[in-house]
Amino acid sequence: MTLADATLVQQGESVFAIGNPGDAMLFSVTKGIVSAVGQRPAR
Amino acid sequence: MTITEGPINWIGVNGHNHGEYLLFKTTSFPLNLDPIADVYTGTISERTTSGAPTHAAMAQRTAAQGVTTQGVDAAPVIPADSVGRDFHGELSLQEVVGGSKPALVYRKGLNQSGTAFFVTETGVIATNAHVTRAEEGLLAVLPGGLSLEAKVVYIDAEVDSALLKVAGPAATGPI
Question: How many Cβ atoms sit within 10 Å of the Cβ of residue B102?
């Protein structure tokens, strides 16, 4: 499986995430849409 | 003797406030460097804006030749297991999840945890930098529950990415 170019992701596109959100649901799958691109949380 | 100063406010060149830090003073900083051939191993594939698949970096052959920035963009190498496995419209969600999940890692540190995934067949794991910084001991927990010690081999705070390496080959294939 090839990694996609993240710069091609568009707002509104359907996406899903596989991971460990908050340690609560390990190895879970979540589906949603891209809310925004180019946004990074303030550090 | 005072060996620390601070805390000092860290303002990045882009104006972001990264919080406070302490400045440690010492006459020497012991560093243990691993040979690059031990760290950047395996093959990573990516899809470029042109749509043509290229495969970046970290191949054992390039490591053996001495990896340079130019070497990262070496000639495409298409792993046999990637042929015909483009998920853009070709695989169902169930198939993508089923194919990806074995490469998934629960990356656990003393302070923070998060998600990671194998990107090579030799034990190199990709994760986020913001959950990796300041972590010394890291565990890579696989979906089957197996825990492997991992160490940080690369961090790029600008793109919030980090690479970890577990000892020995990955227990599963790359994503």
Answer: 17
